[in-house]
Design a protein that fits this description.
The chain is an alpha+beta fold. Helices cover about 40% and strands about 25% of the residues. It contains 14 helices and 15 strands. A hairpin with a 4-residue loop joins strand 6 and strand 7. Helix 10 packs across helix 11 and helix 11 crosses helix 12. The longest helix has 21 residues.
Amino acid sequence: MVEYPALDRLPVPLFRADEKGRVTWANEAWEEVLSSRIGDLWHDDFTAFDAASASDSWHSCVLQHRPVNLRSPVRGRNGDTLFYEVLLQPALVDGRPEILGSLVDVTEQTVAVAETSAILDTAVDGIIIIDEHGRIETFNQAASELFGYSHAELTARSGADLLRAGGERVLDRLWRGTQDAKPLHVESFARRKDGDPLEVDVMGTRFDYAGEECVLVVVRDITERKRLEAELRRLAATDDLTGLFNRRRFIELGERELARATRYESPLSLILFDLDYFKRVNDTHGHLAGSRVLREVGGLLASLIDIPEAIVCRYGGDEFVVAVPGCDLAVGVDLAERVREAILDQTFCSTEDAELDSLNLTGITCSCGVATLQRHVEPSLSVKRAKATLLKLADSAMYVAKETGRNRTAIAGEPVRRRSAAAD
């Protein structure tokens, strides 16, 4: 047995082994680590280390003649399991391939990692620990279930892989944003293994993990919360009977479009519709029939007005209003006439439903008033005053249409010839 007195006194376990894994020399620190004395291992295969992880690394070092690092459990003298970081260095001794090895005790770190993993698994939210290169160091069971990946599949992915487009930017923002040790919240999009999209709230904070600075990322699924928030926004902006915008949302969007049209001196038309003699429908057929008619008028407007920028709204009762950015007076009048004719030609309540029998109501008409920003509103007016002016003028024009025979379109400020009784 070869002796190396200087190396024997070093506190780091060192050893030499031949190409078959048989230990040919080891120092005193090695004997303190292993459960058997060195003489007992003299002709044994290198089995002190976890066979599954050591075997491949050992052969890589010998056959490919390259250094190898591995972390492996070692049986201690008292039977305890210790964890060591093992460095295998290939060498040639008298022309024969040998391995020089050293061991670094990482038991404390490994136990801490195991304890951390156990704690993480008690969390409801997904938790992922990511190093500075974006590699996943560890994660909890909730993260595995959230993304639908097995342990092996998730470990093989990067943190950015779990996020949709822009994942690298999100991780970079988390890494840079946590430099002052303060948590950083980011909302992002992710995707499960099966392709289902997720909306997630991501909180990152710097975290020392096994002696390495990492980012601890808490991932909370907020998909359902976002869906409910979107539904609440829709309900707050929508007329529940017709599905069109409600009055409040119309005012918000209308003022925005008025401000844009004023700034860029572009046209904008406002059309107000009111059903003629609508009270007769309620009085004759009941309010369920009246509600059905209003709902069908709303559907008719939504399908007929195919201008993407148009803001279509049930303004109140049997009144409907449409703001059409980019449309001048001629286009506005043409659109009002198309709506008027479509309502006249429509047969309402033609099908039976759970609440109402088929009624086949025909002859329902509407009166329309049209006003435009450029023609009817002073440029010096504020947005709110311009909105009020347009609505007032369109409303006045609509009442002129009613007073002159109904079932017609009137332009603000222009006379309308009264329709004769014979024409009705």
